[in-house]
Structures are given as structure tokens and as C-alpha cells.
Amino acid sequence: MSIRRTVIVLLGMLLFAATPVAAQQTEEQLAAHYYSNGEFEQAAQLYETLYKKTTNKYYYQRLYATYLELGRFKDALRLVERRQKTTDRDLSLLVDEGYVHLRQEQPKKAEKCFEKSISLISNDRQPIADLVMAFKNIGRYDYAARVYTTAREKSRNPYLYFSELVGVYQQMGNYEAMTQEYFDLLDHQPNMMGSIQISMQQALNEAPDNRLSDGVRNALVSRVQAHPENKNYLEMMIWYSLQQKDFRFAMTQARAIDARFPDAGGEHVLRVARIAQGNDDLDMAEECYKYLQAKGQDSPYYFDSRVGELEVDFARINRNYAIDSKQFAQLKAKYLSAFDELGKNERTIPLMRHYAQLMAYFADDAQAAADMLDDLLALPRLKPAVRDEVKLELGDLLLFAGEIWDASLLYMQVEKANKDDVLGAMAKYKNAKLSYYNHDFEWAKSQLNVLRASTSKLIANDAMELSLLISDNMEDDSTYGMLELFAEADLLLYRNLLDSAWNGFDEINRRVLSHPLFDDVLMKKAQIRMKQARYTEADSLLQRVVDFYPEDITADDALMMRAELNEERLNNPALARECYEKLLIDYPTSLYVDRARKRYNALKDNK
């Protein structure tokens, strides 16, 4: 209390000596200090003085609030009533009056005030904004919504305050009314579909539960059934289904549009196919592409569907670890048939690149792969970025064939031509890895350390992992003997010489009883067994990494590989789900977190 008295004495001295404006500012600061500290009696005294001097709205609101805090409801009512006499256009004062009645447990009087404020609404926007804010401040969002709907009626504009009303309904959790607002606006202004989708997507992302999602779906189904001729509702249904990753339902709606509106030509089906493909729903994407192909070669999306189906086939084989000779022969025949029908041109570049990879890494036919890439590079009007990407792939092919120096030359060409972009960084990484294969560890490490600051997260992470592999084992093995063995075996693995690679990694285990490379050796052996379709052995090797080296950088890689192996090849969804969950809990900063969460949720939903 002595400190407070001192402050008051000093304040008195300042007030005596200072100008009126300075004195008022000091009083206001002290009042705010008392209010924020919960000393409402002192705050009320100062705000009463300030309000008498200047009856502005801020001092009124603070004085009103202090009266409520102190339970001085009669004083609060008198304050409101006096202000109403001087500012009759401020409808929010009726809310203040009603709230005092609510605090006194007089709900009927309160509702009477609230209803009166609604009845006095005009076309003046500022009183409406103030009235809405007053209702929001006391938690009466139902009345806030009524302010907007009444203003609409008065203005005879049924779409006035659309965004504001949607926001109120969202805060109320009245998702049915919120959804109706969106669709009513869509009926009135179809060209607003893109903006409506953006707004709805944000609302869906912010929704605390599934009620909004369910409400949107139910409302859309009802409107589609009631208005089957309305294309906009079908398009919204497709959009909503894609947001929910329900590609089957999206496909159904896309086909419905295609049937009812033939001029669309399958555009929506193609969009569903591509988004499903991008989300790894390859079966659904393939079904969409085949539907489009069935429409015949004259269909505007026939070409895209042929290319898309082969991209799906490539994604499947690239994701799997082994393919039998019969499957590969069928896939090769499909590619050759596509080239005969569609040609080798700018639109089939993805197929040409994929075919080269298939021939090199699955058929061990480096010459056929190189010939295809040469055909690609000979295409006229080839974009420089695509040309350099293909050069990198050709460099990979040369490395695969054992032509190390020719591969390095191509990597350097691409790096020089793309110094300041991701493609140049990728070329630099590939050359650094080539140096690692060639036992030039110091040079490789210096280049990798530069790449750890790359703008590409994937390149930076790969560079960090390889840099750590080198530096950790350079420190523990001054002769680099085990690291050299590891790099040699790693190159053999890259070249698909699996038995030789296995023997090379095994040699490390035979030479030493313990080494920091042992977890990496287990990982590489697991990759070899997966390529050999010996999945149970691969699973056992990955389990050993997780069990014995949980703190090492390979642990999250092993968990992710094991999860996908059990889900896709070993038909053990329970163990896959367990691995995904462990990765999410134990390794929350892993690059695999998003992918693991998606797969975990899918498996949980199908449990």
C-alpha cells in the first residue's frame, strides 16, 4: 500500500505541475494499470473522472467493464442509459444493457433489449458492425448471425455479408447453415466457385472434428439429387471428394458429369486420375485412365490416358522391389506398343525416360536404355531443363555400366549449366557420391558439406546422410579400410550386381567384430534381399537395425522400409501399422513423418 500511496502522491504532484493533456494521459495509464492488475475500485474511480472529462467510447467501455467486475449493476445500467440519450444510433448499447440484465439473472429483460437492437437495424453498415461485435463479445453468436440476416432483409440483398455470416456460423459450429451459405452463393454466382472452394477448404482444415466434413457431404448429396442437371454441384462434389482423398467417389461423380455433359470430354475423369496418381492410389488412377481409353482414339484425352496408364505401371514396378520375367515382358511390350501408336515426341518424353530406366535397371540392358535416351536428346525444341535432366539420367546409366569418368563428365556439365538451381545441386550431389564410390572421401565430404545447405530438402538430407557416413568412419578408421570396402560394395549394389555386393558387405562383418558401419551394412543387405524378393529375410535385417541401433541415423529409414515391406509385400498390416506408429512417436522430425501418418491413418481406418 505504501508504494501505491507514493504513486498517488507523485501523480498528484505531476497533475499539479503538468498540462491538462499530459495529466489525462497519466491518469489513463494509471487506470489501465489498475484494471490489468484486477484493482477495479481504483480503476473505476479514475475512469469515472476521465469519462466526465471526455465521454469517448473507450472510457465508456472501460468504466462499464469495471462496474461489471465489481458487481455494480445499477451503476452500469445508469451509465448505459445516460449514454443512450446522447448516442441513439449506437445499437450496441442495447446489448450492453441486456448483458447487465443477464448478469442479474433477468433473461427476459435481456432478450427484450437484444430483440429491440435487431428491430432497429437499418442499412447503415457501421452500427451493424458494432452490434455484431457487441453480441460476439458476450458469446451470443446466434444474435450476431441474426444481425446479418436482418440487414440482408432490410437491404433486399440475399448475399450481403456472405463472408461475415459464414464466419459467424463457423464459430457457432452451425455447419449446416454455413454450408447452405456457400451453395446459395454458388447458385447466384457460379463464377465464384474457385473462391468458394478456397474458403471451404480453409474451413475444413480448421474444423475441430468431422461435423463440417459430414455436413458438406450431406448437403452436396442432397443438392445433386435435387438438381441432377446442375453441373456446378457435381464439380463441387468432385472437389470435395478429392479434398477427402475419396478418389472412388470422385471418380463416380466425374463419370456422372461425363455422361450428362458429353462436351466435357472426360476432363474431370482425367483430373481425378492425376490427383489419385499423385497420392499413390494407383489402382484408382489406372481405372480412370482405362475409362478414358475406352472412349476411343478420337477422345480429346486418349493420348493423356495412354501415357498416364504407363506412368502408373512404371510407378508400380519402381515401388516394388522385384518383378518376374513374365511381368516385365508384358510391360515392355506395352511401352513398345505405345511408342508405335503415339510416337517419340515431346508428349511421350515421360514414357521414354521411364523405358530407359526399366531397360537399364530391371532388364540389365544398358545399350537399349542409352539408345532411348539418345533418341530423346535428339528431339527438336527440347527444353534446356529437360535436356539436362536427361543428361543426369544418362550419367547414372554410365555409372551403372561402370563408366565412372564418363558419368562424372556429364554430371559436371549439368552442374556448370545450372549453378544456382536444384538441378545443379543434384548434379553436384551425384558427382560427390561418385567420388565416394571412387574412395576420394575428403573431396566427396567437402562437396557434400556445401550441399547440406541446399534449398532442396531432399538433396540436403541425402548430402547430410552421406557426409555423416564418411565423417563418422573417417574418424574411427584412419586407414579408411572398412569405408573403402563399404563404398565398393555400395557401388556393386547400385550396379545391381547383388551377389557380389552381398559378399562385399559381408566382408566387413568378417574382418571386424564391431564397427560404426554395421547398421549401414544391415540396411544395405536388407535392400539386396528386397531386390531378390527375399522379403522375410529383409524384414529380419531391418528389425535388427531398429532393435540394435535405435539412435543412429538409419533407424527411421529402417522403420519406414519395414512398414512398407509388411504392408505391401508380407501382407502384415498390423505390424506395418505398428512400425508407422513407432516412427511417428520416436522420430517426430523424420522426413518420413507425413508419409507415415498418411499410411498409418489409412491402415487404422481399414482395421
Structural features, described:
The protein is mainly α and 607 residues long. Among the domains are: 220-308, Alpha Horseshoe (Serine Threonine Protein Phosphatase 5, Tetratricopeptide repeat); 477-605, Serine Threonine Protein Phosphatase 5, Tetratricopeptide repeat (Alpha Horseshoe), CATH 1.25.40. 77% of the residues lie in helices and 0% in strands. It is built from 33 helices and no strands. The chain has helices spanning 2-17, 20-36, 40-53, 57-70, 73-86, 92-103, 107-119, 125-137, 141-155, 162-172, 175-188, 193-206, 211-226, 231-243, 247-260, 267-278, 282-293, 302-319, 325-342, 349-361, 366-377, 384-400, 404-417, 422-437, 441-451, 457-476, 481-494, 498-511, 518-531, 535-548, 555-568, 573-586, 593-605. α13 runs antiparallel to α14. The chain is elongated, with a radius of gyration of 35 Å. Mean pLDDT is 89; it is low at 5-11 and 13-18.
How would you sum up the global shape? elongated
User: What is the second-level CATH architecture of one domain?
Assistant: Alpha Horseshoe
- How much β-strand is present in the residues? under 5%
Examine the coordinates and then state which fold CATH places here, giving the name of the CATH topology of one domain: Serine Threonine Protein Phosphatase 5, Tetratricopeptide repeat
Task: Please report the first level of CATH classification, the CATH class of one domain.
Answer: Mainly Alpha
Q: State the distance separating the first and last CA atoms.
A: 66 Å
Class derived from helix and strand content: mainly alpha
Radius of gyration: 35 Å
> How confident overall, as mean pLDDT?
89
Approximately how much helix is present in the residues? Answer: over 70%
Number of helical runs?
A: 33
Q: CATH superfamily name of one domain?
A: Tetratricopeptide repeat domain
Oligomeric status of the shown chains? Answer: single chain
Residue windows where pLDDT falls under 50 for at least 5 positions: 5-11, 13-18
How many strand units? 0
Characterize the largest beta sheet: strand count, sense, and whether it forms a barrel. none
